Amino acid sequence: MSAVKGKVLKAAGLKNVDLWGKSDPFVRVTLETPDGNVVGESKTATKTDELNPEWEDEVFNFAHADDDFMDCCLRFKVMDTGLGPDVELGQAAVPIKLIPMLDGGEQSVFTFSLGIHSKKSLGHIVVSVGVLPKPGFFG
């Protein structure tokens, strides 16, 4: 069984969508199959009144047994929580096959733009992540 694991470290330059105060962001991390099905989900704590939040120990770890694991996608959605429904502040997605394999080494740190569906800058997110391949993958 293969797995992807990592940590959400911080976000910066987030848009303020609150009428009073600042946005209250959290990050929803999902592992999605090639057809868009969510097969793993994790959520960070909410940071109140913060456009440049930092998280500590916000770990995600998704295992996936199917052969399509390397074709899956890791998605990071930064959301604002408030009195009404949660509002998306931005998102980033990365194919699993582009994430370095962990062979006893440390996770790699990446900075992703949150403007996946926007021409404007919506800020960015910083994560550490690595893929644990199936046992025997390295021989």
TrEMBL record:
Domain of life from the UniProt record: Eukaryota
Tagged with keyword Aminoacyl-tRNA synthetase: no
GO molecular function: calcium ion binding
Residue stretches making up the C2 domain: 1-111
The keyword Metal-binding appears for this protein: yes
Keyword terms, alphabetized: Calcium, Metal-binding
GO cellular component, one term: membrane
Protein's name in the database: C2 domain-containing protein
Source species: Alexandrium andersonii
Source taxonomy: Eukaryota, Sar, Alveolata, Dinophyceae, Gonyaulacales
